[in-house]
Design goal:
Number of strands: 2
Number of helices: 13
Structural class: mainly alpha
Radius of gyration: 19 Å
Length: 307
């Protein structure tokens, strides 16, 4: 999700204490920065598909409790295929690619690559939705993809490069497709309703990885299962609720800028929890990717709907 510093002068409701928005944003950053660390730990005992299913089974149960407490609307029958497609891109494909990809790169490098979603959103805007993309944006996209290549090759050295790390770019692409579909087709549902049905439908699609999952859970250490439990509750459920609160009470584009803090936070957490030390080239690639994405968002008006 998956994907996401903040001057909070753009609050839509100035009566709301800004401190709540700031704290919610910091909570989201910590949750999503933990995600690659939790995945790295979970992969010690689970296969990538099993880990995705276990994580989102936990998230699904948690979201069901929230849905009962808060109340959500029923989906329209005609919207069921769309909700299934959203679940596929936001949950199933995104997290399968993410988990397999993290077998090829460090947690810190994975957090950088996952932030490349805006690059793919720009490509989708041009090639799928026929929006006009200017030279500035094309330059940002090319620089960002170059930075991603630097991250992948620099993480373990060119000689030991693992191509599986590129799957994280597939995860970023999957998330950008989800975001585009959500933006264009889901105005009939509130944020909580949409998140619930997206998580549930994506989890159902992951049941093809159920064989062997319970056995893996029994054989996993308590620390690994705790890491997966945290993955299911915090990055996969609570963070989305907190982010919905942030978006409801602040300027969307400015609040989204806070997500650029996720990679450095993830690198710091990976150093503390996993004893990972990012290679110099990963740091260089991270600067290129994040600078490109930032420039894409704050540069000249990028996309205009073709008439």
């Amino acid at each position: 999700m998956e994907t996401r510093c903040v001057p909070f002068d753009g609050l839509k409701n100035p009566g709301r204490p800004r401190v709540k928005v700031i704290l919610a944003t910091l909570f989201v950053i910590l949750c999503w920065a933990y995600s690659p660390i939790g995945i790295r730990i979970g992969l010690q005992a689970y296969e990538p598909g099993q880990l995705a299913l276990m994580r989102f089974l936990i998230a699904s149960v948690f979201m069901a409790v929230v849905a009962i407490a808060k109340g959500i609307s029923r989906p329209r029958l005609g919207d069921l295929p769309l909700l299934a497609v959203l679940g596929f891109f936001a949950v199933s494909l995104h997290h399968i690619a993410l988990n397999y990809g993290q077998r090829g790169v460090s947690a810190g490098a994975a957090s950088v690559l996952a932030q490349s979603t805006p690059l793919f959103s720009t490509l989708l805007a041009h090639f799928v939705f026929k929006d006009r993309v200017g030279a500035w944006q094309w330059g940002c996209v090319l620089c960002g993809l170059l930075g991603a290549a630097v991250v992948v090759t620099g993480d373990r050295g060119l000689g030991d490069m693992d191509a599986r790390g590129l799957l994280i770019l597939l995860a970023a692409l999957s998330w950008s497709v989800y975001f585009a579909l959500q933006k264009h087709h889901t105005h009939r549902y509130d944020g909580l309703t949409l998140v619930c049905y997206t998580v549930w439908s994506g989890t159902l699609l992951l049941f093809i990885f159920a064989p062997g999952m319970l056995s893996a859970a029994r054989q996993a250490s308590a620390s690994v299962n705790l890491a997966v439990l945290v993955l299911g509750i915090f990055p996969s459920a609570l963070a989305y609720l907190a982010w919905a609160y942030v978006l409801a009470h602040s300027n969307v584009s400015r609040a989204s800028t806070a997500l650029y803090l996720i990679p450095p936070t993830a690198m710091l957490m990976a150093g503390l929890i996993l004893a990972e030390r990012p290679a110099a080239m990963v740091m260089v690639g991270a600067v290129i990717v994040l600078a490109s994405v930032l420039a894409l968002n704050v540069g000249p008006a990028s996309v205009a709907r073709a008439g």
